[in-house]
Amino acid sequence: MEKTLFEEDIQIIDVEDSIKTSYLDYSMSVIIGRALPDARDGLKPVHRRILYAMNDLGVGSRSPYKKSARIVGDVIGKYHPHGDTAVYDALVRMAQPFSMRVTIVDGQGNFGSVDGDGAAAMRYTEARMTNLAEELLKDLDKDTVDFVPNYDESLNEPDVLPSRVPNLLLNGSSGIAVGMATNIPPHSLDELIDGLLLLLENKNATLEEIMKHIKGPDFPTGGIIFGKKGIIDAYKTGRGLIKIRAKTHIEKKSNKDIIVIDELPYQANKANLIKKISELVKDKQIDGISEVRDESDRDGIRVVIELKRDAMSDVVLNHLFKSTIMETTFGVIMLAIDNKEPKIFALKELLELFLNHRKTVIIRRTIFELQKARARAHILEGLKIALDNIDDVIELIKNSPDTISARDSLVAKFGLSELQANAILDMRLSRLTGLERDKIEAELKEILETIQNLENILKSEKLIEEIIKNELLEMKGKFKCPRITEIVDDYEGIDIEDLIPNENMVVTITHRGYIKRVPSKTYEKQKRGGKGKVALTTYDDDFIENFFICDTHDTLMFITDRGQLYWLKVYKIPEGSRTAKGKAVVNLIDLQPDEKIMAIIPTNDFDENKSLAFFTKNGIVKRTKLSEYSNIRSVGIKAINLDENDEVVTALIIEKDEFELNLTNQNLEENIDETEEVNQIEGDEIPSGQMLLVATKKGMCIKFNVSSLREIGRVSRGVTAIKFKEDEDSVIGATVIQNDNQEILSVSSKGIGKRTTADEYRLQKRAGKGVICMKLTNKTGDLIGIVIVDDEMDLMALTTSGKMIRVDMQSIRKAGRNTSGVKVVNVDGEEVVNIAICPKIEEDEEMGDENEEI
To answer: What is the pTM of this model?
Structure first.
């Protein structure tokens, strides 16, 4: 039976195979023709077609703007047969300074904003190319790249642009294809060119050497990149995760902190950020924010976050980083098209590929210019022959019946080519003058030199690389592109503390419990006996009780009169001006009603070889390993058991010296019951190692070895340090003495002080009555403090009215143990309530008169 015509045309095709083939064709079309950029010019087809269409329209950087609709129409009609929205969106992005590191399109009108606002309709906006776009297209008319037919083969379009800058890395790219995606971050052009110049000089340069020039991505919106690991991974493998944070600063307004956002992470939507912060505040997920407002203008981003008076700016800021797009992760995938195939590139590969592209462009441009120069030289050589034989040429032309005969005669008689003969026939009579003859000869000479130079370039790779180098330097000079995104070396373990400068601070706390920190440099040094500066503004019934010097990163241990211990980082204490009242400490730590802070101790670790010693009003001392207080709790812990009617006066850290460490290693200490008072050591006290000096209000003190004070448990009572001669006496302070050459400064409530060497205080057994520390009279008042000092320190004293004075230690006279001393502070009817020491920060001023003996 014969087959019909239709049956002969039927082919049996497997449906599965057909779908696979069709989907593969579709996939390659999306990958190559739409979603991914070319590794050489960094452009997707739509971007390349937009620029080429604008070039056709003559919309250069110095030309008048043209309606975006006209540009989009040309792109769609000639080269890109897709939706007008997709083309216009691509045009808009190339004009947005917050999307592109260096814009390619110069837009006029509304082209969107960082708030996510869309651009105006294409019929309202206008556009033209930027200077950078012209550099991408430069030499396009010199056969530097291949041209391919457009979609209907009616026109040709470039397969790639010559691109004098590494646009793929400069402006980055993002896109999702079938089964793959690209996300390349933008970079600084200055750094990219420096990296390319390095590779031209040293083709074997390592990634580490390249990264000395190309430090990392440089986003148009700025921000801070945290951690170099993600950058290194991306540059080495083509994939990496980069953490980006908003750049902020803190301002003060009416004793309140204001967080100001200056820069946002790349592609962060400002309007959505403000909305998210408002939602977090409304849902009470973030405390301490009173108002959020957008004060951004044409000069840049400024988002203001006003905090409540008791809010800690660093805590709020840390919460914002964790809960909003103020911190984002940029996932780098350096995927691009090379030789019609998608590939993930390392940084060095992309740089090398761009350099190879530029070499190809320069070679093709040189060949084009060489051919053009040779053609011109050929014509000039013919004209020169004609001028040398002008009479014969004129006679030959006159006698020729027509142009063709004249041309053939010229070719036959003078050995010319048809091109040369035609040029002679087209030559005007004015070229026969002597001046014109000279111009032809000069032009021929110049053309021949040009030909020689072009031939030399084609023969020398070194000359080609020199041209690339010069062009790159030209681009660097033309497009200034300094880095705007800051890079912080390490992200691992980053917390809010790492964002706060480690500065020397004076921390003060008043009788009513107001605490603040002020940079120690705020207090200028004054000569002895000066009136001092007001350290803070207090109420009439308030005065400063404690102050000390520490760094912002230190941990503060608050020991209260009830034997409780609390923790607080110094940077979490509000920083105030010199006269600011401060913030109530009850808002920072969980104090009980009527609980009073007696000691604030800064530390930067909880080492096993350190211990914490507590001294009570009734003369009890207890020593416990500092590590037992390392488990920080917001509600605090019980640090010592106190007798009835007793309270903690002070506490200090003791670090084991070599002598005591040897005792521990040799197991010379006995085990004791931590709840039982320890008796004195049998026989003589061991005169070695560190010593403790405990002083009382009535001017008595006792010095004994630290080694006689064993470490006991955290909740134990302790042992007797000193017994009182008078019933009204009590402990006012204690200090650790390293050796007998150290000096002890004693200061009384009436501002009298003296320096005494430690060897004047006799070493005793613990629990004795001690010896006289300062001779007290009505003029001196009670003893209020003792500290170890030297000439490299300054004294800082505070009075009941809140005045603070800084005194050079060298101006305070040395005196014996059983003396009163000299006037240190002019109290003017007030009393000194506390003293501390701090490092020198300024040159000594002129001191006062001779010491006034009391």
So the answer is: 0.61
